[in-house]
Structure formats: C-alpha cells, structure tokens
Amino acid sequence: MKLTRFAPALAALALALPMAVQAAWPEHPIKIIVPAAPGGTTDMSARLISETMAKELGTTVVVENKAGAAGIIGSQALGKSRPDGYTLIMGNIGPNAINYSMYKELPYTPDDFKAITLVISVPNVLVVNADTPVKNVQELVALVKSNPDKATFGSSGTGQSPHLSAEMFRQRVGLEATHVPYKGAGPAVSALLANQFTFMIDNLPSSLPFVKEGRLRALAVTGDTRSDQLPDVPTMAEAGVKDMVVTAWFGLMAPKGTPDDVVQKIYQAAKVALASPEVLSHFKTMGGKAGGNTPAEFEAFIAAERAKWSKTVEAAGLAKSR
Hints:
The chain has helices at 2-5, 7-24, 41-57, 72-79, 93-102, 137-146, 161-173, 185-193, 204-213, 260-275, 277-285, 295-316, and strands at residues 30-34, 61-65, 87-92, 113-129, 152-155, 178-181, 199-203, 216-221, 247-255, 289-290. 45% of the residues are buried.
C-alpha cells in the first residue's frame, strides 16, 4: 500500500532518467576513428577539427588511427561500438562508397553508419618523384608505355579514391601498370619519395607539401578547375585526359542507433569548427573545401556516391568475388 502511493512518482522518474542522461551528454571523452594511417587527408582533417569540437562540446576529442584493408578495419570497429555518440569515424569515399562495389562481402553495411556532416572535399593529383624524367602527362604515358612490365603505381589502399582514380587514368590513356597498395596516404607518399614505384594519384593534401618542396612533381589535378594551391598544374582535361574529374570527400559518421539529439550536438560542434578561421585557413592550404551540410544532406550525398562509384568499379572490372 505504501509503495503504491509512490508508483506515479517512480514512473515519472523512470521516464525522466533517459532524458536526464541524454541532456548530460557528453560526460567523458569522444573518440574519432581514422580508418587510415597518419599523414593522409582522413587523419589531417580529423585532427584539425577535433580541438574546436572539443571546446564546443566541453570534453576531450581524441583521434585514433585504425589503418588497414582499405578502411575496412576502422569501419568495422565503428560498427562494433556503442551508439552513444562517444565513438565516431572520419568516413570517406573509399570505405563508405567504393568498397560496397569492390567487395562482395564486407563486415559492415551502409545501414551501420549514421551520417553527421561532410568535413572536407579535395581533388586528387597525379604525382611522380621529382627525379623521374617526365615533366607532363604525355611524357609519363610515353615512359610507361616504353616499359610496361616495370611500370607500377602506388595508392593509399585498394578501393580508395587514389586507387580508383589511377585505374580510371589507366583506362583513359591506355596504360598497363601494376598496382602497389599501402596502408594509407602517408606510407604511399613515403614510398614514392623513395622512388619505389612509377607514379601515383593521391589526395592533394598529403602530396601537396612535397610538391611545394620540389620532392614530388605534380602533372595534373582531377578537379574540374585548377587548384589555387597549384595554379600552374593543369587539370586532367587540360592535359588531354578527358572525362577524368574526381573529388575525394571525408566526413563524420556515428554508429547506427545513435540518438538524434546527440547527432545534432556533434553536428553543431563540427559546423562551428568548419566555419572557424583557423580550420578554413588550414583547409585552404590543403587545397580542400570545407563541408558542413546537415546529417540528412550528407546521408543523401553518400547514397549518390555509392551509386556513382558502383558504375565506375563495374566498368573497370575491379569487383572482387570475396
């Protein structure tokens, strides 16, 4: 009888507890998984926005690299995380668009991710070691065709946009060359600096510093216009390679089931970071364009990218049986 008197109050308290817990979010540090090695655009963009996001959210935001298997390892780790907003991922065009067509089976599906916002989009750039005796795309094509058995091209990983861009380039100009994948842009760039393969198409930010230092030579960019950071480098179209426009993108995602109000808090913090003068300045020097679209807009964008790259992978005959 005495307990019955308190039943309505206890019920009201039970209903209020989840709201109170959510309202207190975040109560401890947030982790952003980077499904690639340090030194690439995925890693750089995550670290650039993490400090401002931490200030906005009132907690620490840490970046954790989980490289390997074309972003599959890091993406699978997110899928196994609790959907509480404390584990995020800096998704990108490879694991979140291209991989669905590249691999027959993956340990994750598009439904395992909840889009938050696009962070940065960048063109790719065709680069060679500065010691390579070629000054333009035509000379590179001639060099590779003169000795196709020894020609190789590197990438940040099988299925990433640099790999697919290079495959597209080979198709457009009729080249034969062997693919050499690495666990991220950082290791791939280091290998090219050591002259371990012939050429690479890389996300612009990871190769740009070495182009400016004169250690790599940029032959063309994959944007529809020239990059402000490399105004003397032609687009692929200007270099005589038609139908070769590729834009790589990177954005924040959470596990499916993450509460909408938590996603909105993360989105608002990311939006503030992406509008900050410091981040905008860094993105400009990287040759990139800041994002900031809504979760719904980013979700629609990713779906369109999956469909687009499905056609590209099929045309290239790159789909794998496993």
